[in-house]
Each structure stands twice: as C-alpha cells, then as structure tokens.
Amino acid sequence: MNINQFGGVFGRHLIRAATRAAMAIGITKGIDYAARRGKKPENMTEAERKQAQKMSKTSRNAVKRARQAARITRRMR
To answer: Which of 65, 33, 28 is nearest to 52 (CA)?
Structure first.
C-alpha cells in the first residue's frame, strides 16, 4: 500500500496538510537558525539580536517572493 491509497481522498488531503505544516515549520526554524548564526538569543548582544531579526525578516520576504514566483510560473505552463 502506498501513501496515496491511505484513507482515500480525505487521507491524502490530511497527509498533504500535515506535510505542508511540517515544511512551513522547518523553513521558519531554518531561517531563524541561519539568521542567528547558530547562537542562542540569550547569548547574543542587543546589536546581534537586532541584526538577526532584520535578517530573518528579509529572508522570510525572500521565501514569500520565491513562492509567489513559483505559483506564477506554474500558471504560465
């Protein structure tokens, strides 16, 4: 039995939703980790924290634009 046969249409919907949620959490955690350069927030100076927040915000915006571009190119095909 493969994963697409699990629970029919509703099962596939639930699996897709769970996969999307897990990917979103993973992407967010990865962006935050990269912005902090692996340091814990309590071990950072105030300037490092501000820079990490700014970097995190710009990275999330870049991810958002990449998703939009992917959606647009899918529509054009």
So the answer is: 33
